[in-house]
Fold this sequence. Notes:
It contains twelve helices and twelve strands. The chain has helices at 11-23, 62-72, 86-91, 94-118, 155-174, 196-205, 225-238, 255-269, 303-309, 317-330, 332-340, 353-357; strands at residues 2-6, 27-32, 52-56, 76-79, 124-130, 178-183, 185-187, 210-213, 219-224, 244-247, 252-254, 285-288. Helix 1 (11-23) links the parallel strand 1 and strand 2 (27-32). Helix 1 crosses helix 7, helix 2 (62-72) packs parallel to helix 4 and helix 4 packs parallel to helix 5 (155-174). The chain is globular. Residues 6-7, 9-13, 32-35, 37-38, 58-60, 80-84, 99, 103, 128-130, 160, 183, 185-186, 192 line the site of nicotinamide-adenine-dinucleotide. Nicotinamide-adenine-dinucleotide is lined by residues 6-7, 9-13, 32-35, 37-38, 58-60, 80-84, 99, 103, 128-130, 160, 183, 185-186, 192.
Amino acid sequence: MKILVTGGAGFIGSAVIRYIIGHTQDSVVNVDKLTYAGNLESLASVAADPRYVFERADICDAPAMAQIFKQHQPDIVMHLAAESHVDRSIDGPADFIETNVVGTLVLLEAARQYVEESGKKNFRFHHISTDEVYGDLEGDTDLFTEETSYAPSSPYSASKASSDHLVRAWGRTYGLPCVITNCSNNYGPYHFPEKLIPHMILNALSGKALPVYGDGKQIRDWLYVEDHAEALYKVATKGKIGETYNIGGHNEKQNIEVVHTLCDLLEELAADKKPEGVSAYKDLITFVKDRPGHDRRYAIDASKIENKLGWTPKETFETGLRKTVQWYLDNEKWWSRVLSGDYKLERIGEGQKDLKEQKYGS
Ligand SMILES: NC(=O)c1ccc[n+]([C@@H]2O[C@H](COP(=O)([O-])OP(=O)(O)OC[C@H]3O[C@@H](n4cnc5c(N)ncnc54)[C@H](O)[C@@H]3O)[C@@H](O)[C@H]2O)c1
């Protein structure tokens, strides 16, 4: 099969592509605009494989999408391209509406036209979404199921909720064969350093404050990214058309617990890397003003994907977090090039000089 992955240079998309090339015989077309979050260095291990092709394109560009469908004739679309960081959506929501809503519309229309014109049989459109569309859980024990009503709280989750609705409508109205997944927080290798776990690891290693929002008691359900990639491939290839599957890791943790566990792991694995003047990594923890509209608790009921498709996560939070910390310790080259902005250098030759200026700053 040929699988068109959008957003394949991002954190989860690159894990999906590494999974497909490493574990299946399928080929991949990676369609990515390379925003600040796209990093081709996360795909170095598969870039030379003849089953892998990269197309730099914006999913909002309708003629480009039509051309890519026509040229590559995919059997499956796995749509991950998105603006994904909640804090950025609060500072600038328009990009989130453009990419997540308009971009999904453009891609749905390109897919619909492609299926109509090519007569492609057994085509599937898999939309990858988040548990944040369900909003906040009130109690300590209730869980998001596939029937939970949507109640997004942030511009990011509202844009993802909108795109989910579009996908469902294109399935019902036009008969486009669609599946949707809603997943909890991912963590693991190649995670952009603005997100909680890598941000804490890298700040700790450089002796900077570990900023925790509010009282740190917000609860998230954490899933190791490689487990997510495997679940996504299962849904893309075996999921029932028209259905939604929730994906979660059975790892509900308060943010402050996550930061404490990271500090413990760093004490064990990186005692020799402790910056001067730091006696314990935990001493760097600092509570900062809470994020506006911050949801208190997310938790996923993943029984449907377990029962119907036989998927369960392989990693526990303890094993996955240990692997993640070790990966950041072993892969300084990858993250130091992200922090310096040098991961964008290869684009400069393409007349993208401005990208180098948009350096990531912690
Ligand atoms: N990270 C999580 O914990 C999580 C959890 C559940 C669901 N999701 C969803 O999974 C998907 C991937 O998340 P991620 O964390 O890998 O995101 P990411 O921000 O790391 O990567 C997004 C990728 O999309 C690309 N992109 C952005 N705008 C584009 C456009 N207009 N055209 C083409 N490419 C574009 C970027 O260059 C980047 O490579 C998103 O749809 C997100 O909503 C993420």
